[in-house]
Amino acid sequence: MAFGSGNNTMSWVCLHLLLVLVFSAKVVLCGTRVKSIPGFAGDLPFKLYTGYVSVGKAEMFYYFIESEGNPKEDPLLLWYSGGPGCSVLSGIVYENGPIVFNYTAYEGGLPSTYYYPYSWTKTASVLFVDAPVGTGFSYATSADEFPSSDLKTAAQVYGFLREWLEEHPQFLKVQLFIGADSYSGLTGTIVVKYIIDDNDAGVLPRLNLKGYVLGCPLTDQTLNGNSKYVYSHRMGLISDELYEAAKESCNSSFYDATTSEPECYEDVQLMAKQIKDINKLCILEPKCTWASPHQDGETARRYLHENPEEFIRSLPEDPDYYCRNFNYMLAYVWANDEGVRKALNVREGTVLDWKRCNKSLLYTEDVESVVEYHKYLSTKGLQVLIFNGDHDLTVPNTGTEQWIRSLDLPVVQYWRPWLVDGQIAGYTVKYSSSEGYRLTYATVKGAGHSAPEYKRRECYMMFDRFIHYYPL
Question: Cα dist. 284→82, 236, 393, 409 in Å?
Fold first, then answer.
C-alpha cells in the first residue's frame, strides 16, 4: 500500500509505533501529510509528508515526496545537500523537487511558488533530509550534539535512513538509491559503505540498496584543489605561460603551495589572482554577494566597502545581468514565515532563524578523500551515476573525471554526447567491473554548481533514464 494512503493505514501505523514507543522508550514519529503550503495556489498536486526522526539526541527533519508515477514499484532515493550545512529545501526548490519560487513576479512579502513538472519525484519517491544536525530545520535536544564532522554526518544520515524505513516498512521492498551533491559527495559515499557493510553482516532489516547518485561531488580535497587550476587553464582563464611555469615550479601540485618552494607559492598566488573575481559556482555568471534578508547594518556596509566587486542586486530588467542570489533570498523569506513553518509541521522554538546554508555550523572535516571508498564499492554490484556541470569551478569536472579514471574500471561505452530533444545536453562515458558494478559519468553542458540548478529539465531526463536502467 502506498505511503499514507487512507486514514486507516496511517492510524494503524501510528498505533503500532506508539506501542513500540511504550515498550521500548524509543522516540519515533509519524510523518504528517502536507496538502497545501502558503504561497501555492490550491492543494499540492503531489503527496508531501514532513516530520522528524530521532537519531540519538538529534531530531532530523525530512520532506518525503511520494513518487508521482508508481510509488509501489518506483525506486526510493534518499537525498541531502552539501555545504556542509546547506538545507535540503534548497535542493527541493532550486534543483530536483516539484516546486519553485516565482521570482520573476516577486514584489515583496511572502514569495509565491508553483508546480514544476520535471521533478525527480515524477519517477521516484524522494526522501529529502536536512543533514547534519544544525542544518535547515534539524536540531538537537542537547548542546553537545551540535558539533559535527564528516564521519558523524554519515553515521547520522545512515541512522536516520534506517529509522525512517523501519517506520515505513512498505518502502523496504523497493529499490533504494543514496543521493547527495557537492560537499556531501564525501559523506554520501560513506553512507553507501555503511549500508553495504551492514547488509553483508546480516543486519536486519536488510536495505534493498541498488546504487547511488552523486552530483558535482567533492571526493578528494587535494585532487579537487588542484583541479580548479587545471580547469581554469583549460577554460582560458589562466594563460599558458603562467600555467606551465606553475606546473614546473610546483611539480603539478598546486593545492599544498603554501608549504612549497617560494617560486611555486608565487606562481599559485598569481593563478589565484587571475580567477579571484570569477563566480566559482558558474564561471559564466556574475559574481554577487551572498544574498540574505539580514544583509544590512554595519556588518554588511563594512563588507561591501572592503569588497566593492561584490554587491547585492535586485532583480534587473536585463536578464543578462541577473544575480542568481536574488532567487536564494526568497528561500529565507519563505522558510522563516510563521505560516509556512506551521504548514510544514516545524516544531515551534526549535530553529529560530532558518538559513539556506548554515555558515556557523560547528563542523570538523575529518575525511580527506573517499576515493578508496569508491574503489571498495566498485567490487559490489551497484548502479552509479556521477554527474558534473561543465562550467563548475567549485568542483570542476576535470577533477571528477580524474578520480573516476583512478578506479581503473573498463570502459564499456566510450565518451559520447547525450541528447535531450535532439540537442546535446552533455557528454557521457560508462564503466563496469566484473562484479557487476556499473558507473555512468555525465557532464551537463552549460551547468554550474550544482548542475540541476542550471539545467533542471536536462538533469531530470538524465536521472529518469538512469534510475530505470536506460542508457543516457
Answer: 22, 12, 10, 33
Catalytic one of 182, 232, 260, 433? 182
CA 302 → CA 163, 277, 288, 290, 297, distances in Å? 46, 19, 16, 14, 9
Active site residue 391: no
For residue 53, give the nearest of 207, 142, 165, 171 by alpha carbon.
165
Q: Which of 67, 168, 449, 450 is catalytic?
A: 449
Helix 240-250 × helix 262-275 angle, to 10°: 140
**Catalytic entry in 374, 392, 433, 450:** 392
**Listed residue (87, 18, 97) closest to 65, CA to CA:** 97
Residue 148 annotated as catalytic: no
Q: What SS3 string covers the chain? A: CCCCCCHHHHHHHHHHHHHHHHHHCCCCCCCEEECCCCCECCCCCCCEEEEEEEECCEEEEEEEECCCCCCCCCCEEEEECCCCCECHHHHHHHHHCCEEECHHHCCCCCCCEEECCCCHHHCCEEEEECCCCCCCCCEECCHHHCCEEHHHHHHHHHHHHHHHHHHCHHHCCCCEEEEEECCHHHHHHHHHHHHHHHHHCCCCCCCCEEEEEEECCCCEHHHHHHHHHHHHHHCCCCCHHHHHHHHHHHCCCCCCHHHCCHHHHHHHHHHHHHHCCCCCCCCCCCCCCCCCCCCCHHHHHHHHHHCCCCCCCCCCCCHHHCCCHHHHHHHHHHHCCHHHHHHCCCCCCCCCCCCCECCCCCEECCCCECHHHHHHHCCCCCEEEEEEECCCCCCCHHHHHHHHHHCCCCEEEEEEEEEECCEEEEEEEEEECCCCCEEEEEEECCCCCCHHHHCHHHHHHHHHHHHCCCCC
Preceding peptide of 5 cis, ω within 30°: no
Question: Considering the entire predicted model, what is its pTM?
Answer: 0.87
- Overall average pLDDT of the 74-94 stretch: 96
Reported as a single tens digit per residue, the pLDDT across 252-308 is: 888 876 666 889 999 999 999 999 999 999 999 988 865 445 544 344 334 333 443
State which amino acid sits at residue 303. Answer: Y
CA distance 441 to 403: 11
List of residues 6+ apart from 406 with CB closer than 8 A = 371
What the block records as the C-alpha cell of 462 is 538524465
Residue 11 is among the residues annotated as catalytic for this protein: no
Q: What's residue 163's pLDDT?
A: 97
